[in-house]
Amino acid sequence: MLDRKTLVLNRSWMPVTTTTVRRAVVLMARGVAGAVHPGTFEVAQWEAWIERGPDDVHRLRGIGFEFPVPDVIVLTHYNGFPDVPVSFSRRNVYRRDGYECVYCGRAPGAGALTLDHVRPRSRGGETSWLNCVTACVSCNARKADQSLQAAGMRLRRRPVVPRWPGGLDPSSLRERPVWHRFMPAKALSATLGESSA
Questions:
Q1: Which helix (H) or strand (E) holds 61?
Q2: pLDDT in tens, 166-191
Q3: Distance between CA atoms of residues 64 and 43, nearest Å
Q4: According to the model, what pLDDT value does residue 187 have?
Q5: Domains, the chain
Q6: 35-71 pLDDT tens trace
Q7: Rounded CA gap, 174 and 194, in Å?
Q8: Of 30, 95, 144, 155, which residue is 20 to 30 A from 78 by alpha carbon distance?
């Protein structure tokens, strides 16, 4: 439960990042963040959240107290909006592509996916957002170190550099619909639409 994600809003209620419940609890205990009630949108500081937090949320239990786990916290002073690029990694490529093979469209699960270089490294292809895609094992083996044309294959969607607001990837947003109400509509549709474009 402590590693579960919590959405972090700046003082203007714009999403800036996610953090772990562990870190969210620390921020609340230090008085630099308040928890947002999912139904009423009221902001509660540490003691008020413990006393009057919502009943229908996960809870951390300790000796003599229960702490409702916040889905969303809002910072009391920070009003910036960091422009943090999404780090390139195998996992983030899978997230960008919706855990689907960009060649055949199958979603066999992360264990049966590979990272494929559209232009093979043996032919000068770079390891980058614009040249790497998610592929199932059989499509990757079929393509091998050939060009798309030589392999007789095509991409179902072109690789792009993801622009996830606050580092929020599409799979995180799909898993936590309570976060949608805090996302600007344009950013939300762009983020959720990326994996199905």
A1: strand 59-62
A2: 657 777 777 788 888 887 676 666 56
A3: 24
A4: 61
A5: 1-85+163-185 (no CATH), 90-151 (1.10.30.50)
A6: 999 888 899 998 888 887 777 778 877 777 778 889 9
A7: 12
A8: 95
What is the pairing mode between strands 72-75 and 5-9? parallel
C-alpha–C-alpha distance, residues 68 and 49, integer Å: 7
Which DSSP string do the residues of 17-41 spell out, in sequence order?
EEEEHHHHHHHHHTTSEEEEPTTT-
DSSP code of residue 87: P
- Phi first, then psi, for residue 177 (nearest 5°) are -60, -20
Beta bridge partners of 6: 19
Cβ burial, residue 61 (10 Å; 0-12/13-18/19+) = exposed
- The full 3-state SS of 131-146, as one line of letters, equals CEEEEEHHHHHHHCCC
